[in-house]
Specification:
The complex is a heterodimer of chains A (246) and B (259). Chain A has 246 residues and is an all-alpha fold. In chain A, 80% of the residues lie in helices and 0% in strands. Chain A has two domains: 33 residues; 194 residues, Orthogonal Bundle (MetI-like fold). In chain A, helix 9 packs antiparallel against helix 10. In chain B, 41% of the residues are buried. Chain B is flat, with a radius of gyration of 23 Å. The longest helix of chain B is centred in the C-terminal third of the chain and has 39 residues. In chain B, helix 9 packs antiparallel against helix 10. Chain B has ten helices and no strands. Chain B folds into two domains: 38 residues, no CATH class; 210 residues, MetI-like fold (Orthogonal Bundle). Classes of the chains: A mainly alpha (246), B mainly alpha (259). Chains A and B meet through helix 1, helix 4, helix 5, helix 6 and helix 8 of A and helix 1, helix 4, helix 5, helix 6 and helix 8 of B.
Chain lengths: 246, 259
């Protein structure tokens, strides 16, 4: 049942496109797209652009996660830090992060640092907020029990607070990675001259639709692998967590 | 008066820190410590914001964006709640659509613009439909989950008391799923703003996203900051305003989307 509907959609699309019921110029047959995808992955630009996007994603994610997790934890355990940072988080968090792109473009110039930092910013805020929420919503009894058994300072942090917040941190990292992919692809679409997002844009402009759909499918596959893979990893690593949520 | 004093005593850092930053920024770019080309003085930005508001430019763009958000959100909400409810009620439909949704959902919404512009007339309609895509999935997902998490005992009890069909739906299933539907709508509206701005940056000539992008292209840096401020204000209004609305309308359930 799970594969029936997607298969049916693809078969219908194939038939309609082959018979010309829908314009094959705009909706090339799935087999044509698949062939283009395989061909370009082996011989052409697709593999290169996939690599570019993956590299940007890895950089952006690392740049976001490394400061975001400690900041979130610090905000969770130290009230003054939370008070200090919260107004900026509240102001920037609901803003679409792609709006930061033009600012980074004028400050850093058109180039990789501006693209990567825009991608990083969308992950950064999500990770800080999830981490903070993880510390804030932990069962206060855990801390009390830890205290009663003589855990203070660093011991309390490493043995009680961090493990309790870990599921939320992982959720933040997972959501952050997804958000950074979304933002990066959008950035590539508007401003970069390489990467999967740019590929979709270029082939849209040139109306070379098989290539466009191939790049599109690759982004979808990438998103699917990242979201599904990380969920599975989270369920496996953090076995004490009951529900992963969305 | 004392209440105000206590409130200030608790919040002085939260209020003081942005004010300090603004004053420092003003001073630093006035003395040239920060390059005023990239970081214009907040007072200059405020002046530009006032000018943009006075000559009507800002309102025009903001209205365009709001109208687009309104259409996209309505489209996403109607389809999302309907399909989400149907998926929650009928297992076959859920099992059939789940894999399709799982593949489509993680695709960045901006990429749908080319696809959508093949399907519907390009321009305003394509823009609205593209914006609706992500919100639709969010709303459909949360609605489905909302129906599925209803206690089976409650449904059984209702059945035993003779509730069937429309009555079962309207009296048991819909109220049971409502908190989740509301969460979905709130998230969906938030995403509609995010996506509409992104799509406007990519393809539109009007709207707040377009204003930001066009200001960058002609290097009107002050206008960029002013537009950013308005977008942030709109985002805050949508997300915190709706959270407050939920707390007022459905106070008995914690927000499923809070984390």
């Amino acid at each position: 049942m799970g594969v029936a509907v997607p298969t049916a959609v693809l078969v219908l699309w194939e038939i309609f496109s082959r018979l010309g019921i829908v314009s094959p110029r705009y909706f090339p047959a799935p087999t044509t797209v698949a062939w283009t995808l395989a061909d370009r992955l082996v011989a052409g630009d697709l593999a290169g652009d996939l690599l570019v996007t993956l590299t940007r994603l890895a950089l952006a994610f690392a740049l976001a996660a490394l400061p975001a997790v400690p900041l979130g934890l610090l905000m969770g355990i130290a009230r003054p830090v939370r008070d200090l940072v919260e107004p900026y988080l509240a102001f920037v968090f609901p803003v679409p992060k792609i709006t930061l792109l033009p600012f980074l473009l004028i400050i850093l110039g058109v180039g990789e640092p501006a693209f990567v930092l825009t991608g990083a910013s969308s992950a950064f805020f999500q990770i800080v907020i999830s981490t903070l929420a993880g510390v804030q919503t932990m069962d206060p009894r855990l801390v009390e029990v830890g205290r009663n058994y003589g855990a203070h300072g660093p011991r309390l942090f490493w043995k009680v607070i961090l493990p309790a917040a870990l599921p939320a941190i992982f959720t933040g990292l997972r959501l952050g990675l997804g958000l950074s992919l979304v933002t990066l692809v959008a950035v590539e679409f508007v401003a970069a001259k390489s990467g999967l997002g740019h590929l979709v844009y270029r082939h849209w402009q040139m109306l070379s639709t098989p290539e466009m759909y191939a790049a599109f499918a690759l982004v979808g596959a990438l998103g699917l692998v990242l979201t599904r893979g990380l969920r599975a990893l989270q369920a496996r690593v953090l076995t004490w967590q009951e529900d992963i949520g969305v | 008066m004392r209440a105000v004093g206590r409130w200030l005593g608790e919040r002085w850092i939260t209020i003081g820190s942005p004010l300090t930053v603004l004053v420092l920024w003003e001073w630093a770019s006035a003395t040239g410590l920060l390059r005023a080309v990239f970081f214009p003085r907040p007072s200059t930005i405020a002046g530009h914001l006032r000018d943009l508001a006075m000559d009507g430019t800002l309102w025009g763009h903001a209205a365009t964006t709001l109208v687009r958000i309104g259409w996209s959100f309505s489209l996403a909400a109607i389809l999302g709640v309907a399909i989400g409810l149907a998926m929650g009620l009928w297992r076959r439909l859920r099992e059939g659509l789940d894999p399709v949704f799982a593949v489509i959902y993680p695709i960045p919404s901006v990429l749908f613009l080319p696809l959508v512009s093949f399907l519907v007339p390009p321009g305003e309609i394509a823009l609205v439909v593209t914006t609706a895509v992500t919100s639709f999935f969010l709303i459909a997902f949360t609605t489905t989950h909302g129906v599925r998490q209803i206690d089976r005992l409650v449904v059984e009890a209702a059945r035993h008391y003779g509730a069937r069909g429309w009555r079962l739906f309207a009296a048991v299933l819909l109220p049971g799923a409502l908190p989740f539907i509301f969460t979905g709508l709130r998230l969906g509206l938030g995403f509609a703003l995010i996506v509409v701005v992104a799509v406007e940056i990519v393809s539109a000539s009007r709207g707040l996203g377009a204003l930001l992008w066009l200001s960058w292209q002609v290097l009107k840096v002050e206008d960029m900051y002013a537009t950013f401020f308005v977008i942030a204000l709109l985002g805050a209004l949508l997300s915190y305003g709706l959270a407050a609305l939920r707390a007022r309308l459905l106070p008995w359930v914690p927000d499923a989307g809070d984390r």
